[in-house]
Amino acid sequence: MANFAERLDLALTKRGYTGAQVASALTEAGIPITRAYVSQLRTGKQTNPTLQVLRALATCLQVSVGWLVGDDYLESGSAEDLQLRAATIGLSASGLSETSLTVLRGVVELARKAEGLPDEPEPASDIPDAAAPLSGPQRRALGKRLHGLRIAARLSVEQVETAIGKGAAAIPAIEEGRISPSPIIVERLLTVYGVAVPPIREYVLSLARGERSAAWYDAHSVPVWLATTYALEQRATLIRTYHTHLVPPLLQTEEYARAAVTVAGPATLGQRTVDEALALVLARQEAVARDSGIVVWAVIDESVLTRSIVGPHVQLRQLDRLLEHAKRPNVSLHVVPMDDPAYVPRTGPFTVWRFAEAFEPDIACAHGIEADELVTDIGAVEAYHQAFTKLSVTTTTREETFELLNEHRERLSRSLAK
Known about the structure:
The protein is α/β, with parallel strands linked by helices.
């Protein structure tokens, strides 16, 4: 069994890094750890690195977090919390004697047989190849994003070079997309630019590591916080979203979406014009629609169905669209009744994403006035979960949703017929 300590040691050896070099690189990137701590992880004396440290080590060594902790042992069909618990057990086994490991393996094999699971696969212990150089589109997208972050931080090229060390990186060449910075350099740049929110850092780093192609939301005109939410949405397997004023953007018709952008203002999506903001909404809808594996669980306040931000004909077509969405197997639409609601959370619109990847905790997003706030604190995310759960058990059922949507459609049709 290749445990975490063994894989870390293999990665350090193959990449030619010393513990001191890795500790220095991570510390400069804003994740302070010591050479001694790296040594303890490498030898199995320490077995409880945080997710942030795991991600930073994986970035520095150009491997995935899953490979580093032995993702081969995780069942791809398991729920996320079970994956996390299984991997945690794997980490806690680091440092045990060969006799104890044999006993542990026997217990695992018995448990798998009892639950009818297949035999445990042999892990791929060879270290993955280092990432290939970024493609032209990847370099340009990363360069423009880093340029925008530097400008937002109000730092000159000279100030950045002073902060990370003269000669550490050719900032103009990076920003122009002429060269590919190493992931650890990007870590350091994000720290200098004051980018502290983990999902935003990971969004930029996933491009720097070459883990994904440049996407439509990587455009320089899309604010980094918004691009991050779009990227998270694309990776999610379950989207839980609650809206109090307007139809959720993923369920809007184009006409309704234009009106929604108009009343909220295109600046809420970081755009100058309604057309530019509308293009983002439509691109977002198209991207989610292409992935049939994404489940959208939407809860809306009944007032959304009566609020007039568009003419009655457009509102009628929006109600028809909601009825169409409600019939789709991957959409669950529910309504909080205006009359005697059983529960109304003391919050505005919010979304919670769940992911398929191991070690990927749920992330919540509070939709604010000028920008969205990404929530990663476990306790805070759990509070959003509890709110959504309470909403889900007190809203309309699937059948009642159809009835309510049809009632509002008939009401609107009668008013148009007069």
